[in-house]
Amino acid sequence: MKGTAASARSLAAYAVARVLREGVTLDAALKDALVAADSKLHASVRSLSYGAVRGYFRHEAILGKLLSTPVRSLDFLVRALLSVALYELEDERTPEYAVVDAAVQTAKATDASRASGLINAVLRRYLRERKSLDAEIASRPAPRHAAPIWLADRFRADWPVRWTQLLAASDSHAPMWLRVNSRLATTDEYLGQLQAAGIGARAEDRVPYAIVLDSPRDVHELPGFAQGVVSVQDLGAQCVAFPLALAPDQRVLDACAAPGGKTALIAERQPSLKNLVAVDIDPHRLSRVRENLNRGNLSAEVVAGDATAAAKWWDGTPFDRILLDAPCSGLGVIRRHPDIRLRKSPSDIDKLPALQGRLLKSTWDLLAPGGRLVYVTCTVTRSENRDVIAAFLSGNPGAGIVAAEAWEGWPGFGEADEFGRQILPGEAGADGFYYAALTKQ
Q1: Into how many domains does the chain fold?
Q2: pTM over 0.90
Q3: Which of 238, 260, 298, 343 has the fewest C-beta atoms lying within 10 Å of its C-beta?
Q4: Which of 343, 312, 325, 271 lies closest to 23, judged by CA?
Q5: Positions marked catalytic
Q6: What domain range includes position 195?
Q7: What is the pLDDT of residue 308?
Q8: For the segment 380-429, what is each residue's pLDDT rounded down to a tens digit?
Q9: Count of other CB atoms within 10 angstroms of residue 71
Q10: CA–CA distance, 37 with 29 (Å, rounded to integer)
Q11: CB of 357 closer than 8 Å to CB of 363
């Protein structure tokens, strides 16, 4: 980056360019970008970078109409600078002329200085033709909702009636959901604490201890957060308690446990478990599991291990309950992590069912007869959800399905298939999650 002083626009553009070029998460790119930045810039950098990433494929479609060469032929930083500027023009809080001027000056102060003329010409042409261009983009569902074509096609194939609804939901902003630690407070008590702090919120009565804020807040503004009274967890993720059917004296395994939100929920909801084991293949991510447990004064055995090679860490005693929160494409949480659309590809997603099947088979072997394994993903593809369960059942005659109607307390969310329930993004304000419960006969 040229010069000594970085602007919010340049920092955001460099972060977005890293996502495009290296495939890193936006959170990781921002963490690096903000290390030496003035703290006064942090909020603006986050807003600009998330806005640019969230709208990237809409911006790419617009640029495709304005450029004489393919958008993908442009340098990553130039693409990122243009997307930041187009987001600002969409946001409309900054005058159009100021956005264009700032984009040009930012380019001149960065490694994209040679493209400053191109950026100026493209943005000015967009402003001249904006009405017709925006109307054309709005007529096509994929670019209108900033989705790559492959994602729109996949949604349409799996959800032919609701695919445009899924695109729209993925292009929206996710609410901030909280989970009250039932050991430390009731929902009403915590709502009172929020009200006293001037924070608007409401409870979701169908899911115990779930609260949604009127607007997102920094966690450090939340009363009792540091003391573990409350955690941030999406409503869809909190629904895991229903199919698990926790009870005293159970041995419970949380496979693929990091970052530990569901581990903490299990420990909170059933303090009389015989044993709770949290396993994850990534030792670094297990630090987050420990942090979540420690903050709530909760206990679990935290183990670094591969769930597909349990012999290396399992003590041989079967589990009564197993939660397999399987690695997945994450297409149900795009509104929370919009960079997924830039980092994932169809080939990446097509590799996942094989891994999910291996994890399901290996964890199944750890389940006690009469026990229950709950398979969870935060995606909406049938290949990663019902098809994985169908393939597993066909090869394991001793496995049976616990019908969703038998999940005590289930709030009625989701669309049923023959194996489980799919919560679609935006339903009841939740992210997209799939749940299926299996029992060993």
Answers
A1: 4
A2: yes
A3: 343
A4: 343
A5: 378
A6: 177-232
A7: 95
A8: 999 999 999 999 999 999 999 999 999 999 999 999 999 999 999 999 99
A9: 17
A10: 13
A11: no
**What whole-number distance in Å separates Cα of residue 266 and Cα of residue 183?**
12
Contact assessment for residue 172 and residue 335, using Cβ atoms and an 8 Å cutoff? yes
> Does residue 291 sit in the same domain as residue 381?
yes
First to last CA, the chain: 62
Residue 3 belongs to a domain: no
Q: Is residue 210 part of a domain?
A: yes
Amino acid at 199: I
Q: Which two tokens stand for residue 112?
A: 């994209």
Looking up residue 426, the CATH number of its domain turns out to be: 3.40.50.150
Tell me: pLDDT of 224 over 80: yes
Same domain, yes or no, for 145 and 132?
A: no
**Could you read off the pLDDT of 314-326 as tens digits, one per residue?**
999 999 999 999 9
Please check whether residues 251 and 366 belong to one and the same domain.
yes
Q: How far is CA 207 from CA 212, 219, 428, in A?
A: 11, 21, 11
Considering the domain architecture, whether residues 113 and 49 belong to the same structural domain is answered as yes
The tokens of 21 are what? 């070029």
Q: Is residue 388 part of a domain?
A: yes
Same domain, 135 and 160: no
Alpha-carbon radius of gyration of the chain: 23
Residue 395, amino acid: G
d(CA 150, CA 148): 6
pLDDT of amino acid 206: 96
Interacting residues of 130 by C-beta distance below 8 A, sequence separation 6+: none
In one-letter notation, the amino acid at residue 262 is K
Q: What is the CATH number of the domain that holds 222?
A: 3.30.70.1170
Our CA angle for 179, 173, 437, nearest 5°, is 50
Q: Sort residue 344 into left (φ over 0), alpha (ψ -120 to 50) or beta.
A: beta
> What's the mean per-residue pLDDT of the chain?
96
What pLDDT is attached to residue 6?
Answer: 66
Q: Is the pLDDT higher at 38 or at 126?
A: 126
Calculate the CA dihedral of residues 331, 410, 320, 278 and round it to 10 degrees: 40
The token duo for 263 is 């581990």
Same domain, 64 and 210: no
What pLDDT was estimated at residue 299?
A: 95
Chain segment 14-57, per-residue pLDDT in tens: 999 999 999 999 999 999 999 978 999 999 999 999 999 999 99
Average pLDDT in the 61-78 region?
Answer: 96
